[in-house]
Amino acid sequence: MDILGWRVFPLVSLLISFLLFYIKTFSKPSNSLCSLLPHDRYWIASRQIVTPQGVISGAVEVKGGSIASVVEGIYQHGQIIKGHVVDYGNAVIMPGLIDVHAHLDDPGRTEWEGFSSGTKAAAAGGITTLIDMPLNSEPSTVSVETLKLKVEAAEEKIYVDVGFWGGLVPENALNVSALDSLLKAGVLGLKSFMCPSGINDFPMTNSSHIKEGLHVLAKYKRPLLVHAEMQLDSEGYPKENDDINSARLYSTYLNTRPPSMEEAAIRELLEVTKHTRTSGSAEGSHLHIVHLSDSRASLNLVKEAKSRGDSITVETCPHYLAFSAEEIQDGDTRFKCSPPIRDAANRENLWHALTEGHIDMLSSDHSPTIPELKLFGEGNFLKAWGGISSLQYVLPVTWSYGKQYGITLNQLASWWSERPAKLAGQELKGAIVSGNHADIVVWEPNAEFELDENHTAYHKNPSISAYMGTRLSGKVLATFVRGNLVYKEGEHAPAACGVPILAK
Ligand SMILES: NC(=O)NC(NC(N)=O)C(=O)[O-]
Ligand SMILES: [Zn+2]
Ligand SMILES: [Zn+2]
């Protein structure tokens, strides 16, 4: 290169790096597009703010995406609070919901849901963090490579924060280094099935796989979530049933998945969870049973394990608390899920277990599909896709059906925010306290609405939701994620600025 070339070369490379910096900085949505509120520092006030110390009347100061202070009344240091104040009057200010169990089906099955529509629905429902399940996307999240595909798929599409569970499947369960690298890559914990999952690249695990998984998880202090239903030789399991009249009956489906399937799975799990006790070989790991439906023998087993010191928690879902088998019409496959929705007496017991603290938390288990796979015309319960679509409605559903049991705002915050935050290892989320992320839902408990065709639903396929046609109370007015007002009465922020959460 001649002298001139040597002089021009640094200049050109400087120019290129400036250009790259410019593209990187300014092609991302600017902050003003992330929020419907053009302030970095502001206050939100109401007469009902749900804090860990109880419900107070006052104001929450938000600064730089975090909660800077929480004050009773509208005075701080004896002076009336200054700056931009949004006064929500009698509406409830609560920590944003954390949904630890949702299937957003992205990448690969975005015609079922996808990160964009799924997190829009979440924001409209007051959910500020969602942990995505490792199955129903294509491929399933079972390795470092497939996790990378998830995170890439989520980029600039998520309106709320999204974390990821990894899958524990036979292939990685017996391969410590594969599990290690998946956990190092940032999944918040693992999830496995004790029965067929319905997804080809997500095979079921047995208790030896689960034991191995827990021992690896112990090092990382992260949980294993398990779909606890086990196929029993002596009892029925979705047998192919060519008699369409019988397959249309909800009772036919219910009989294929009796409570004893949940009980058998949990009994087997407890052989392994004993290692999670203090000084046990898997101390530090934790087992979480997802979507419990059986409120009798299965729940008793969990209670006993807790009393013995096992590190174990259990969730149930709004659909088990809202619906009962008696009300499900034959052929109405919107209600098909596993484990199945059981009788009204079981539902009553679930409510008691929840209010008495034996069920630790709630999750949506939002598991949508395309209407075609729900086989509405045929109404075949044995062949239709199993899964309830509910993401946007979990708060009003819990509130509407829970009011008669006298549930409190603090209980709602505990079931939907505090305990889920702990399960997912999110120390800066789940409660309205200074220093936490400003993840907040503002909602009006007394406002009622009809879930009819005039109601704006953000799910990709609203018609498959079992809640369509019901009347609910509890309307979400505003949702803040890390201080950004991402949803306000029917409108979303222009840009999707949620953060993908990876464990460190
Ligand atoms: N593949 C699924 O989404 N399964 C889900 N299906 C339900 N719950 O019916 C689940 O969580 O088990
Ligand atoms: Zn499941
Ligand atoms: Zn699920």
Features:
504 residues; alpha/beta; TIM Barrel; nine-stranded mixed beta sheet; six-stranded parallel beta sheet; 15 helices; globular; binds allantoate ion; binds zinc ion
Count the helices. How many? 15
CATH superfamily of the domain at 96-429: Metal-dependent hydrolases
Range of strand content: 15-25%
Q: Sheet with the most strands? A: 9 strands, mixed
User: Which small compounds were modeled alongside the protein?
Assistant: allantoate ion, zinc ion
CATH architecture of the domain at 96-429: Alpha-Beta Barrel
Q: Let me know the number of strands.
A: 21
Radius of gyration, in Å, reads 24 Å
Terminal CA distance = 47 Å
| Share of residues in helices | 25-40%
Shape: globular
- According to CATH, the fold-level topology of the domain at 96-429 is TIM Barrel
